[in-house]
Amino acid sequence: MVPGMQPDVIILDIGLPRIDGIEVTRRLRPSVQTPIIVLSVRAAESDKIAALDAGADDYLTKPCDLGELLARIRTALGRATLKDGGVFTAGDLVVDVNRQTVHVANEPVRLTETEYNLLKVLVLNAGKLLTQGRLAKENWGKESDADAGQKLRTTIRSLRQKLDANSSQPGHIATEPGVGYRLRVTPPE
């Protein structure tokens, strides 16, 4: 990056001439909190997982719709303000990170500690695709353990039952098959 300049968002291709964009992301992430969106022709699941695990906030495959890119930029920028805590709202889902409360359609939702911790990670990264490995590691300290993967799937299933049971807007947690999960910032259409 240019010294003295701090971009609001970084849009990065992984097919760069001298250094791979995944390596750029890996090098930037420890010192830069700016959202990184990868925009690449590479559509392989392994490329998406590598970019997200390196610290990218999102991954879009080219060609993409400009409207979708702009929506993801808005989501990434909106998410940056929640990192310090606060209230997350998406449709009828309201999560107050400071008070550790969850409401759906104005009704309180009781979550276990494990469910809440997983939801909090999703909220703090709302709209961002999180790999199964990252979610398992952040919640159980194990990334590739089969037991952690099963716990993750079980906890996601339980969260969906609780968040979508009384909801007029089901599908708060989206699945990207073979990659991971994303907390939707807008209800599905």
Summary tags:
globular, single chain, three-stranded parallel beta sheet, 6 helices, four-stranded antiparallel beta sheet, alpha+beta, 189 residues, 19% strand
Tally the helices.
6
Beta-strand content estimate: 15-25%
In the sheet with the most strands, the strands line up as: 4-5-6-7
Order of helices and strands: EHEHEHEEEEHEHHEE
Largest sheet: 4 strands, antiparallel
The assigned structural class equals alpha+beta
The total count of strands amounts to 10
Give the overall silhouette. Answer: globular
Give helix % range: 25-40%
- Unreliable segments (pLDDT under 50, ≥5 consecutive)? none
Kindly report how far apart the N and C termini lie. Answer: 38 Å
Question: What is the alpha-carbon Rg in Å?
Answer: 17 Å
Describe this structure as you would to a colleague:
The chain is α+β, with helices and mostly antiparallel strands. The protein has 6 helices and 10 strands. It has helices at 21-28, 45-54, 66-82, 113-124, 132-140, 146-164; strands at 10-12, 36-40, 58-61, 87-90, 93-96, 101-104, 107-108, 130-131, 173-176, 180-183. The strands form 3 sheets. The chain has a 4-stranded antiparallel sheet, with no helix packed on it. The longest helix is centred in the last third of the chain and has 19 residues, at 146-164. It is globular. The N and C termini lie far apart (38 Å). The model has no long low-confidence stretch (mean pLDDT 83).
